Amino acid sequence: MSKILVIEDESAIRRVLVKILSEESDTYNVQEAEDGLKGIEAVKKEDFDLVLCDIKMPKMDGVEVLEAARKIKPEIPFIMISGHGDLDTAVNTMRLGAFDYISKPPDLNRLLTTVRNALDRKELEVENKILKKKVSKNYEMVGESDSIEVIKDMIEKVAPTDARVLITGSNGTGKELVAHWLHEKSPRYSAPFIEVNCAAIPSELIESELFGHVKGAFTSAVKDRAGKFEAANKGTIFLDEIGDMSLSAQAKVLRALQENKISRVGSDKDIKVDVRVLAATNKDLKKEIEDGKFREDLYHRLAVILIKVPALNERRDDIPILIDHFSKKIASEQGTSPKEFSKKAIQLLKGYDWTGNVRELRNVVERLIILGGKEVSEEDVKLFASK
């Protein structure tokens, strides 16, 4: 049932609005407030799906109510009710976040259509949030070891900020999961997350990939093309394996971080970008700096926050939890029931040398699920998980 609040100081108009909405649908629970102050009190106490609010009211006008409500519960859509002389103000309230406005006396069809549209958008936003939470589980780090708990705690503290983060660790440890989780838990979660594997892009193309190019900048540049930084505007860019980036590209990334603007290859025109930068590497960047392969000034720009993801061999107590997690995930992907692993099988797997880290463990679990018995046994591990 949709809860609607009508804030209107003119009792006749308020009664008409309540009557129209109540008769329109038995799924509308309509409440009323006779002035702005009482309206704000109602908003504080209850969760409304929609508010209809008059603009001209004593004690607290509609603009003040809208601004106050958006600080308390910004997700509530507002439809403003305007008199003939309030139209400019009504339009201004939309800049402040109102969904729409209707004029007095209210046209029945216009009123009901606007109410339905506002409620539909509210429902869509709720569904998107639920979906977002489901999606976020794909990027949650699995484990309860001290080292993983430290990372989880750091993510909770760092994610809501715009601080740059440098994520280090061996291949297969889950550096990209940390980056995704930082984005998912940040205010930028609804904006793009753009991932760039710096090691997979040839050095002569990395600048074009990151910053775009203009037509004619080089032989194959047949038209203007936006780069990854522009694609990530308002969101997050994740520079994976940044230790493999060329020095010339590093210089341009440094400028983007310093000035919040980039220029496409072949162009002198600056383009402003609002991007949070996360980076990851499996290299020792301080050693790379000593060898002249990585810029020290860029390192200090990127490493505002340092997160080191431990190797799986350093958190063996998480292996049973990871096996259970992967077993359920793989079963879900294949439309089958999760397989149990015997205690001896798990104990044997805990003793392996996991040079490929979590990624290798996931592959081994999948292999054992496919080739092992109804319950994965110690013998199955010896047969199919040989190192």
TrEMBL record:
InterPro entries: AAA+_ATPase, AAA_lid_NorR, CheY-like_superfamily, P-loop_NTPase, Sig_transdc_resp-reg_receiver, Sigma_54_int, Sigma_54_int_dom_ATP-bd_2. Pfam families: AAA_lid_14 (PF25601), Response_reg (PF00072), Sigma54_activat (PF00158). Residues 141-370 form the Sigma-54 factor interaction domain. Keywords: ATP-binding, Nucleotide-binding, Phosphoprotein, Transcription, Transcription regulation, Two-component regulatory system. GO terms for molecular function: ATP binding. GO terms for biological process: phosphorelay signal transduction system; regulation of DNA-templated transcription. It comes from Flagellimonas eckloniae. The modification 4-aspartylphosphate is found at D54. This is Fis family transcriptional regulator. The keyword Signal does not apply. Residues 3-119 form the Response regulatory domain.
